[in-house]
Design a protein that fits this description.
Layout lengths: L5 H17 L10 H12 L6 H8 L3 H13 L3 E5 L7 E5 L1 H21 L5 H19 L1
Antiparallel strand pairs: 1-2
Length: about 140
């Protein structure tokens, strides 16, 4: 196609990204329930999250979020901590093991991304980063 529909091209690219996440080709832990919880906690920082906020961030119901959080706690990746401002709330906090898993996932992903863009100019890399960030921000609105 000489003039592909840009919206269709973006859709196809997003489907490919989702499939690679599902197959865990971007990081061994990517797309796993515990990694999704860790990513949500990191993305919200410094705002602490509880189970309900995890449910919202992951687009799941509260009972499912509770199970995901319990699995992450059992794996030693996060811990529950009393909220100092509201004793009725429990915040979820990364453990050193959870932070180490996040760091490993970032390193793995960034290595793949850098390899994919290795022959791009620095300007192209920055333009792509700017446009992708702008696109994702717009999707959240």
């Amino acid at each position: 196609m000489d003039n592909p529909d840009p919206v269709a091209a973006v859709e196809a690219a997003m489907i490919t990204i989702r499939r690679r996440q599902t197959r865990r080709t971007l990081a061994p832990q990517a797309g796993t329930p515990t990694q999704d919880v860790l990513d949500a906690i990191e993305a919200a920082a410094p705002t602490p999250l509880g189970v309900n906020a995890i449910a919202t961030a992951l687009g799941v119901d509260q009972p499912r979020a509770s199970k995901l959080v319990a699995a992450a706690v059992k794996a030693g990746l996060i811990r529950r901590e009393a909220d100092q401002a509201d004793g009725r709330r429990t915040n979820l906090v990364l453990t050193p093991a959870g932070q180490a898993q996040l760091d490993a996932a970032h390193t793995h992903r960034r290595t793949h991304f850098a390899a994919a863009m290795h022959d791009w100019t620095p300007t192209d890399q920055q333009t792509f980063a700017t446009l992708l960030t702008r696109f994702m921000t717009a999707l959240d609105r």
